[in-house]
Amino acid sequence: MVNLVGTLAKRGMEVAHGRIREHHGHPEGQIKLSTPAMILLGVTGIAIFLFASSIEYTIRVLMGHLAMIESPESTTVQIYTPTSNSDDKLDKKEAEAQGLLDVEIEATTVTSTQALTTSIRRTVRHLKSVGGRTAKWRGLGIFIMYTLITSLVSGGFKMAGLRMVPSGETIANLFAALMASRLHCVWTHKIMTVPSDKKPYERKVTRAQWKQLLLPTAVSILARDMSIYTIVYTFVYTNMAAQKINQSGKATWMAAVLAIVPGLIAVIALPIFVMLPAYGALIRKEASLLPEEDETIISFDRTFGGKLAYVTSVLSYADAWKSFTSEARRRVIKLYVKFFFIMVAFVFFASHVLALEFFIVANDQVHQYAEVARQSLQAKGY
Question: Which of 92, 110, 301, 311 has the fewest beta carbons closer than 10 A?
Answer without folding.
Answer: 110
